User: What shape does this take?
Amino acid sequence: MPVADPSFGWQEAAAAFAIISVVAFLVSWVVTDLGRVSRTPYVAILAVTTFALAGGYLAWSGTSVVDLVTDEWAWGLLGGVVAAVLLTPLVRRLPARPHPGGAPLVGRFLWEGVVYGTAEAILLATLPVLAIWQATDALGWTDTGRARALSGALAVAGALFVIAVHHLGYREFRQRASRKMLAGALAGCGIQALAFLLTGNVLAPVVAHIVLHWQLTLRGNEMPPVSKPQRKDRRARRAQDRFASVDRSGYIERLRSSSSTRLEVSRGSEEMPPAGRRS
Assistant: This one.
């Protein structure tokens, strides 16, 4: 893991983590929810914001961007591939929809795959881990194996917090029916944060996130913010699920009522005396 300048103490690292968390929430909430900006221009705003934030953090902490990219680069590539493979089963559980082909698909691969994936990987799986790790390193909590493990767990937990607040900035992730989507985002980006922690190289989360976005694109699943047609599709599916649930409940109640009726008739027939014994 790249080290910070000795003058960059844990207080500065903690303040940097707080800034990262606030920016991660505001960029999604203000731009997509309040501003109602569509996904294509939003990706540009997210990329500019992320790269500016990353550049500011690296300059403030004295962290070398060259070390972040080149140190253990082979392990970084391998970690990214492994993380992408681990995420594949999660992607395949999502419903498949039609996707564009030809030049539009290539354009989406470049813009929403490479640019969007790189920006999110840095914002969600790199900067939070780096800030917390450098804070714990400044406190001397990385001197032993056990201390390094605890510091690493704290760094991943910090990344999960940033991942959560960032996605909660999107309107679609704040709905009760979107808990599975949020859990999937936490799992996917959390694995990428762990890959960065283990390799110390930014290529690990970047490669994994780009591949994740490519896989989502090929399955026809939009990245946030989703377009209105897909929002309507999701609302329609939720309405169908509720109707199916109500219908199943009504069917069960009808079965119970029918069973109770048959039981009462059966009991009544048992209590009645035979026809030949009536006086």
